[in-house]
């Protein structure tokens, strides 16, 4: 073959090859265009690396036919477009996009989708870095700081040693939650999307042994705790601290955490957990019609669910106790205990039956309001029977369930009823006996109390003659002789409740201003008479009569905050507790004859004598210090109950039968004088 013939054969071959290469190169995807009208080969995913991760994770998608550059091509995670950081024909690197969920990754090129390959979008584990504070009692607000909590709570949870807490604020890095009732020391854990955080320890302090309280065998004016320490009970109470109460058909929840903090702020160690008997409360002194919830029995409406009580809600089934009622009772008793506060559990409320019944009250024991055919006949008949009947059977079951619910708690006292009818003495005795006999079979036996009967005509004789462990008399100054009755025990611990002894109208002048010194006379006069004091605190209930408790913007009869005008009253209750804890209270008895003022708690041994004297007015007075010889001296301390200020008064010798004392010039009104042997009380 000649060179020229060789050339002629070579040229067509080269042209054909070149054309073939050119056509292949016309498609930027590196595959034949099939004359411009064919379908490009579908992109194909071979693998993902990694195959799971959180939002923002970098993922390498390996495969074929992706194209040399991205152009209009996309990569999606379960339908959500991802941000591409690099692109080649065989490898695409993307970031898992916000909003992505577990599902297929798909690459789409020229409108053609690849196969899908599964990718799992994981939830980043929440992480706690700190708690502030790291310890606290029930109701304490705790800030939880960390990461990956999520922007909103949704279904996420916070627990304190396994007990769910209520969050008051929530962000991705910070949560505020209150220590829940029943919480104990242990880990706080945040759970997001079923993924639990690390646990960080939170300490719920254990209070000192509070009880059960027993009457002192050596000083019957006081209860003692298990260590033998005499306990003074004092504090505020309010009507809706157990049942939610307002003027709407569905009362708003009461902020019990705030209430407990309020009690602690004023130095209180006792409150009554109130219970109203009437679901609808008509003609109450606060004005209007009020509603209460919850109640001890389920509102089933009967088997058909259609029987309606007179308050418009389903009728009660008296055979079905409502567990949520008792869960609340237990939670609140425990919360009070963990904050060092005694819970006086009110079982019934006779005053409401006397004064506040109406056609729409929904009272569970009246015909039509229950599905059991029970009818009290109206009025106060459910408390004035003289022997056991069907109603007492249901009442007994309720009381026993309440005992079962909180018997193991050391801070409980029982109160039968506030201001029951005068002719309810058989019923009161029956309930006291029931508590004593039923608790005799239980680990703890708690004191049972008998408050004054209907104050319109009551005397306190029935209280002293009862078998109650403590009483709340009608007399605004409790008798110093607390052993005058015929009941067992013969001597009664006395708790003077302003609700039915001092009455709110005595707190105020005609303009609604608190008569602070007069109220302090009531508080300190009872304290130095061997009695304890509870204040019927309006707290947040809007009450315009006598300007008792007013605010500018009540919501359904409830003010946004307590009226500060009562703060001196509240604080003085706490001041009496401070002195009770300072003194050896178990040895202190009312001895008004030792001072010109007539108000004195004292122990008078020859060494270690101690005196607490109240001057209800102003000016000088004498105290008999003859119990100790003149060779011994007593430290002098003045306390101004108007301001809470304590002033040292030096020392005085013992021995004088009428040692004169003049309050400091800083005290212009009533005054408290505390004297104790300089070597310490006995």
How are the SSEs placed, and which strands pair?
Layout: H1 3-26, E1 44-49, E2 52-53, E3 58-64, E4 74-77, E5 80-81, E6 83-87, E7 91-95, E8 103-109, E9 112-113, E10 117-121, E11 127-132, E12 141-147, E13 157-160, E14 163-164, E15 166-170, E16 174-178, E17 186-192, E18 195-196, E19 200-202, E20 214-215, E21 223-224, E22 230-231, E23 234-237, E24 244-246, H2 256-265, E25 270-273, E26 280-282, E27 289-293, E28 297-299, E29 316-321, H3 323-338, E30 342-349, H4 350-355, H5 390-406, E31 412-418, H6 425-439, E32 448-451, H7 461-464, E33 470-472, E34 493-497, H8 516-527, E35 532-536, H9 567-582, E36 589-590, E37 600-603, E38 610-615, E39 621-623, E40 633-640, E41 645-653, E42 659-661, E43 671-677
Parallel strand pairs: 2-10, 23-35, 25-30, 30-31, 31-32, 32-33, 33-34, 34-35
Antiparallel strand pairs: 1-3, 3-7, 4-5, 4-8, 6-7, 8-9, 8-10, 11-12, 12-16, 13-14, 13-17, 15-16, 17-18, 17-19, 20-21, 21-22, 24-27, 26-27, 28-29, 36-37, 37-38, 38-43, 39-42, 40-41, 40-43
Helix pairs in contact: 3-5, 5-6, 8-9
């Amino acid at each position: 073959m000649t060179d020229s013939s060789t050339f002629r054969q070579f040229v067509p071959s080269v042209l054909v090859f070149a054309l073939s290469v050119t056509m292949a190169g016309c498609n930027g995807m590196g595959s034949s265009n099939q004359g411009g009208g064919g379908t490009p080969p579908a992109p194909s995913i071979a693998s993902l690396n990694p195959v799971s991760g959180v939002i923002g994770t970098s993922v390498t998608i390996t495969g074929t036919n992706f194209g040399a550059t991205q152009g209009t091509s996309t990569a999606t995670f379960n339908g959500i477009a991802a941000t591409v950081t690099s692109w080649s024909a065989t490898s695409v690197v993307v970031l898992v996009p916000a909003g992505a969920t577990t599902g297929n990754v798909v690459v789409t090129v020229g409108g053609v989708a690849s196969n899908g390959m599964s990718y799992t979008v994981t939830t980043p584990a929440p992480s706690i870095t700190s708690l502030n504070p790291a310890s606290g009692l029930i109701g304490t607000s705790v800030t939880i700081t960390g990461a990956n909590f999520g922007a909103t709570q949704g279904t996420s949870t916070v627990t304190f040693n396994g007990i769910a807490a209520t969050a008051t604020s929530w962000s991705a890095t910070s949560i505020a939650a209150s220590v829940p009732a029943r919480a104990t020391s242990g880990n706080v854990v945040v759970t997001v999307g079923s993924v639990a955080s690390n646990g960080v320890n939170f300490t719920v302090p254990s209070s000192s042994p509070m009880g059960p309280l027993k009457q002192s065998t050596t000083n019957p004016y006081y209860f003692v705790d298990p260590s033998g320490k005499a306990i003074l009970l004092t504090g505020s109470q309010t009507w809706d601290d157990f049942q939610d109460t307002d003027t709407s058909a569905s009362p708003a929840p009461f902020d019990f955490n705030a209430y407990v903090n309020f009690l602690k702020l004023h130095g209180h160690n006792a409150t009554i957990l109130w219970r109203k008997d009437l679901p609808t409360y008509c003609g109450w002194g606060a004005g209007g019609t009020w509603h209460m919830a919850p109640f001890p029995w389920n509102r089933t409406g009967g088997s058909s669910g259609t029987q309606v009580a007179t308050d418009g809600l389903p009728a009660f089934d008296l055979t079905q106790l409502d567990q949520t009622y008792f869960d609340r009772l237990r939670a609140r008793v425990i919360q009070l205990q963990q904050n060092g506060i005694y819970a006086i559990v009110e079982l019934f409320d006779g005053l409401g039956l006397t004064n506040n019944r109406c056609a729409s009250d929904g009272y569970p024991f009246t015909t039509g309001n229950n599905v059991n055919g029970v009818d009290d006949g109206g009025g106060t008949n459910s408390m004035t029977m003289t022997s056991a009947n069907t109603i007492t059977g249901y009442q007994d079951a309720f009381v026993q369930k309440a005992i079962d619910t909180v018997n193991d708690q050391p801070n409980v006292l029982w109160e039968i009823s506030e201001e029951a009818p005068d002719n309810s003495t058989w019923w009161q005795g029956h309930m006291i006996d029931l508590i004593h006999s039923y608790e005799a079979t239980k680990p703890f036996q708690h004191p049972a109390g008998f408050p004054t009967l209907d104050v319109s005509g009551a005397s306190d004789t029935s209280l002293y003659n009862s078998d109650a462990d403590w009483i709340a008399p009608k007399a605004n100054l409790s008798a110093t002789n607390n052993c005058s009755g015929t009941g067992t025990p013969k001597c009664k611990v006395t708790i003077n409740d302003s609700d039915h002894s001092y009455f709110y109208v005595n707190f105020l002048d005609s303009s609604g201003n608190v008569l602070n010194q007069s109220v302090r006379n009531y508080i300190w006069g009872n304290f130095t008479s061997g009695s304890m004091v509870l204040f019927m605190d309006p707290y947040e209930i809007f009450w315009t009569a006598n300007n008792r408790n007013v605010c500018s913007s009540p919501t359904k009869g409830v003010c946004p905050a307590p009226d500060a005008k009562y703060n001196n009253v509240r604080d003085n209750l706490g001041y009496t507790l401070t002195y009770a804890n300072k003194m050896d209270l178990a040895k202190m008895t009312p001895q008004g004859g030792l001072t010109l003022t007539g108000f004195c708690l004292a122990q008078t041994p020859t060494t270690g004598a101690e005196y607490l004297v109240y001057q209800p007015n102003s000016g000088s007075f004498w105290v008999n210090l003859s119990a100790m010889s003149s060779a011994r001296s007593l430290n002098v301390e003045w306390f101004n109950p108007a301001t809470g200020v304590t002033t040292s008064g030096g020392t005085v010798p013992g021995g004088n039968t009428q040692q004169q004392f003049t309050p400091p010039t800083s005290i212009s009104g009533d005054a408290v004088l505390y004297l104790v042997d300089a070597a310490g009380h006995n």
